[in-house]
Prior knowledge:
- The structure is a single chain.
- By secondary structure, the protein is mainly α.
- It has one domain (2-80).
- It has 3 helices and no strands.
- Helix 1 (2-24) packs antiparallel against helix 2 and helix 2 (28-53) runs antiparallel to helix 3 (57-80).
Amino acid sequence: MSVFVFIVLALCLTALLCVYRLIVGPTLPDRIVAAQAITTKTLAVVALLAFVYDQMIFLDIALTYALLAFLSVLAIARSLEGGKVC
Length: 86
């Protein structure tokens, strides 16, 4: 259990660095990359929870969250290019 706590703390600390870049980021693409990095770290924590608690529902949640994050990045990229999102 202590390894799990160490990994989660490390992910949270690096997520705080990403939050800083999300707030301060000089350009919009920097902020998008920071948001995607936070999403990836959140997915890692949820996958670790699935492993620790032996509940596969957490993996379903992580997969759904990853799909929504991917689609949101596609929509943002398309809108930045000036195209229609839908």
